From TrEMBL:
Belongs to the ALAD family. Its EC number is 4.2.1.24. Gene3D superfamilies: Aldolase class I. It is an enzyme of class 4 (lyase). InterPro entries: ALAD (IPR001731), ALAD_AS (IPR030656), Aldolase_TIM (IPR013785). SMART domains: ALAD. The lineage of its organism: Bacteria, Pseudomonadati, Pseudomonadota, Alphaproteobacteria, Rhodospirillales. Pathway: Porphyrin-containing compound metabolism; protoporphyrin-IX biosynthesis; coproporphyrinogen-III from 5-aminolevulinate: step 1/4. This is Delta-aminolevulinic acid dehydratase. GO terms for molecular function: porphobilinogen synthase activity; zinc ion binding.
Length: 343
């Protein structure tokens, strides 16, 4: 039998009316605050944002109510707002014009491509906010895959050569954190070596270490326009099978050995067990990505009056903390920071 003596259960003889009442601590608001084991603060938030070329300052993403694609000047303003609210970092995703996409994704490492200009513009005006950029080729390939392809096969090692060029261009633009989301084997070590060899020792590596081939990325692919490129294709030869948990630990172990500074699990809520295991196994800063589909589900139910948006957003983020996440990438970062500031 389990020894429950630590919390006194053992002292209660079978059949006796409860001497131990867990509800006692829940009676008053002050008491609930006092016994709370986890806390969500603004320091836990990373805000993913979309940047586009010209046109209207911001345009809404239909499948993600409340989320916008910003021009660079509008994004700088948004970054200022995020910094004022105390949000530690942004993750920037580019909406790459069709005519900039190609089979070999050369646009990914052009010095003044959209994302690099956005990084430089934000760094100039809001140097105090951390900037994270995805390292993956999907915004730039005309086929919508994260890697280079030949005869429908993703070329792992050739892709890494391209990712290295992409990361160096981002580092030159002033990015603080490069976040490989491509799931090629061996990319963390190669990226670390290349960054160090080029004087970018300060640039951090946040590995999308356990990234699953998920249906929950749908609205994101709408937002950046990679869905039409990808068509009926899927990413199952490089992103992980949702059936697997042990394999996530192997992915993380390799990335830790290769020099990752931080780890990410993605998607978020359906993968809380993975977050828990990764955090407890490696003790690295570990982040959860509450992805576009998770955001869309909450918003869709809320606009219909079926869920209380404010309540379930905060609840879901707190649950990431309970599962061991040190922070959460969430499209709700601004609304949450505003609410936390109000107390
Ligand atoms: C691209 C990338 C994706 C997301 C982040 N980086 C999509 C994908 O892998 O197809 C998804 C984020 C989200 O759904 O919010 N490598």
């Amino acid at each position: 039998m389990t020894d429950l003596s630590r919390d006194g259960h053992k002292r209660q003889p079978f059949g006796q009316f409860p001497r131990v009442r867990l509800r006692r601590n829940r009676q008053e608001e002050w008491s609930r605050r006092l016994v709370a084991e986890n806390l969500l603060t603004v320091n836990d938030l990373i805000w993913p944002v979309f940047v586009k070329e010209g046109g209207a300052a911001r345009e809404p993403v239909p499948s993600m109510p409340g989320v916008f694609r910003h021009t660079i000047p509008a994004l700088v303003k948004a970054a200022e707002k995020a910094a004022k609210l105390g949000i530690p970092a942004l993750a920037i995703f580019p909406v790459v014009p069709r005519d900039r996409k190609s089979p070999r994704a050369e646009e990914a490492w052009r010095a003044d491509n959209l994302v690099n200009r956005a990084v430089a513009a934000i760094k100039k005006v809001v140097p105090e906010i951390g900037i994270i950029c995805d390292v993956a080729l999907d915004p730039y390939t005309d086929h919508g895959h994260d890697g280079l392809m030949h005869n429908n096969v993703i070329l792992n090692d050739e892709t890494i050569d391209a990712l290295v060029k992409q990361a160096l261009a981002q580092a030159t633009a002033g990015v603080d954190v490069v976040a490989p989301s491509d799931m090629m084997d061996g990319r963390i070590g190669r990226l670390r070596d290349a960054l160090d060899a080029n004087g970018f020792q300060r640039v951090k590596l946040l590995s999308y270490a356990a990234k699953y081939a998920s249906g929950f990325y749908g609205p994101f692919r709408d937002a950046v326009g990679s869905k039409s490129s990808l068509g009926k294709g899927d990413k199952r030869t490089y992103q992980m099978d949702p059936a697997n948990g042990d394999e996530a630990l192997r992915e993380c172990a390799l990335d830790v050995a290769e020099g990752a500074d931080m780890l990410m699990v993605k998607p978020g809520l359906p993968y809380l067990d993975v977050i828990w295991r990764v955090k407890h196994e490696f003790r690295l800063p570990t982040y959860a990505y509450q992805v576009s589909g998770e955001y869309a589900m909450i918003k869709a139910a809320s606009v219909n009056g079926w869920l209380d948006n404010d309540r379930v957003v905060l609840e879901s983020l707190l649950c990431f903390k309970r599962a061991g996440a040190d922070g959460i990438l969430t499209y709700s970062a601004i609304e949450v920071a505003e609410r936390l500031a109000k107390g």
